[in-house]
Amino acid sequence: MKANTASRLRLYPDSVQAERLVSWTHTCRAVRNVALAERVWAYRSARRVTVRAVDQCVELTEARREHEWLRDLPAQCAQRVLRQLDTAYDNFWNPAHPAGFPRFKRKRGRQGVAFPGQAVRIRKVSRRMAQVWLPKLGWVRLRLARPIEGVVRNAAVSQDGLGWHIAFGVHQPEPVEPLVNTGPPVGVDLGIACSVFLSSEESERQRPDIFSPGEKKRLRGLEQRKARQIVYAKRHSRGRYSKRLRRTIAQIATMKARQSRRRADWNHKLTADLANNHGLIAIENLCVSNMARSAKGTIEHPGRQVLQKAGLNRSIYDQGWFEIRRQLGYKAKRSGGTLVVVPAPGTSQTCAECGVRDPDSRRGCGRLFACVHCGHTDHADRNAAINIRDRALSTAGRAGPTVSGHGRS
Ligand SMILES: [Zn+2]
Q: The Probable transposase IS891/IS1136/IS1341 domain covers which part of the protein (predicted)?
C-alpha cells in the first residue's frame, strides 16, 4: 500500500516543539551526510563494498548509544533518512530516471524530518484545525486546508521562509469503476512569459504580477540593505555576519517563499481547472533540458543566439513548465481525463485552418499568425493551441495516449 497522493499543510509547532524540530532537521542532515560519506568511501576502497540502509541501521543503533544528540531524534526518522538514501542510489542507477548522484545536504538548503506513517496520528479539533501526534513532540497544531482522505503512509515536516509545513503521503484506494471525464478536448500552448493560451479561449491567461508595487519596493530595499550590511561586515568584522544581516536575509527569504507559494497557487488553480473541465488535454512536448543544453553549445559547435536562448530557458524554468506538466498528468488521471503530449515541431508555423506549414506565416516578431496560403489570421499562440489539440485528437485514437510521467525525454 503505497502513497499515491500527497497533501502539504501548514504546521504550527509551539516554540519548544519548533526548537526541537530545528535540531532534528540538523541531526537528519548529519546522519545523511555521514551515511553518504561512508557509502562513497566504502565503494572507493579496495574492496568495493556497496553499503545499504540495512547495514547502516545497525551502526546507527550503536551510534545512538554514544551520542545524546543522535538519541534525541526518533530512531524511525533516522532510519528513514537511510532508506531515502537507498532510494536516491536506486534512482541514480536506474537509467530511466533523471536523478544524478546523491548529494551532500548543505546547511543553507532545505531541511526536513521525515516520519513513517505508523508514527503519526491525526485528530480534528475544529472545522479548519487539526492536530498531528509526532513521536516525542506530542500533539502539534496544523491547518486542515483540505480533508485528508485515505491512509497516511508517511509524513515530512519542513521549514521555509514562511514557517513550518507538514506533507502527508496518503494512500487513496482506486475508484471501483473508473471515472470518465466527458468534457471537451483542449489544446494548451504554454507561453514563455507566464502565459497560457487555451484552444477554446479568445485571449490568453496571464499570470498576474506576483508582487504588488509595495512588495517590490520592499524587496528592493531589503536587497540593498543586505548588500550594504555585507560590505560593512567585510570592512569591520572580517566578513562575519551580524545579527542584523541575518535578519535581513531571513526577511528576504520570507518574501521569496511568498513568491513561490503564489506562483504554485496559480499553477495549481490552472491545472485543476484544465483537468476538471476537459476530457482530453493536449500539450507540447517541450524538451526543456535539451533546450537548456543547446543554448551553450559545444566547443566544436558553439551555440547560436546564446543569450536569447538562455533568457528563454530562464523564463521556462521560472514558469515551472515541468511542474505544470506533472500536475496535469496526475490531475487528469484523477478526474478521468487524459493528458496527451504531442511532438512540438511546427505547431507554431502550421496553419490551423488549411494545415500548411510555412515559416513565412510567422513574419516578424509579433504575436500574429497570418497564413500565406489561405489568408487565415489569428493570435499565434491560439493557432498553436488549436494545432496541439488537433494533433492530440488525431493520435489519441491510433497510438493511444502518452500520459506523461517523469523521466528523460
Ligand atoms: Zn492557411
A: 175-294
